[in-house]
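ok new one. same drill as before - structure tokens go in, u give me an amino acid for every spot. 166 of them this time. try not to just spam alanines like last time pls lmao
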């Protein structure tokens, strides 16, 4: 009979309750993510998501969710920003991303996290650039800081799993 082992997986993040002592570039990142909410297209869910990236050259790239009546045709805020950054600044490192959300239907107290597809894209960009992407999830009440995208998806899929091992 084969033995089984219980394993434990831990991730680390910092919980912050106000913006007062955050670095200026993070405050700007948050402000840009909040501004991006204004152009989100969410007529069906009424759940708007805004994101902002900080690139190594100091540029900020924003994204917001874009829904469609044919639901699979929408795209998340994070991927809008990430794809825009790679299309317009393919050789620059993505240093940070901030993500927030808003709805008129209820008060959002907890920060939201990216969906699985967005986590995979973040992680692959992080791996490709060989530099960690800080992830900031925030609401009006709480801020969560992850030192790298990999912390959001520790058991990730990668191309090595597609290759036959000898």
């Amino acid at each position: 009979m084969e033995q089984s082992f219980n394993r434990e997986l831990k991730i680390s993040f910092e919980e912050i309750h106000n913006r007062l002592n955050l670095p200026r570039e993070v405050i700007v990142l948050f402000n840009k993510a909040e501004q991006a909410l204004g152009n989100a297209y969410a007529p069906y869910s009424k759940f708007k998501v805004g994101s902002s990236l900080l690139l190594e050259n100091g540029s900020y790239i924003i994204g917001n969710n874009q829904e469609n009546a044919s639901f699979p045709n929408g795209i998340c805020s994070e991927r809008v920003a990430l794809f825009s950054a790679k299309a317009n600044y393919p050789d620059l490192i993505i240093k940070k991303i901030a993500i927030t959300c808003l709805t008129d239907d209820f008060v959002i107290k907890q920060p939201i996290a990216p969906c699985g597809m967005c986590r995979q894209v973040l992680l692959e960009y992080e791996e490709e650039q060989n530099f960690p992407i800080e992830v900031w999830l925030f609401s009006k009440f709480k801020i969560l800081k992850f030192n790298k995208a990999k912390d959001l998806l520790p058991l990730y899929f990668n191309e090595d799993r597609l290759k036959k091992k000898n």
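The longest strand covers residues 94-103. and btw Helices lie at 24-37, 77-88, 116-129.
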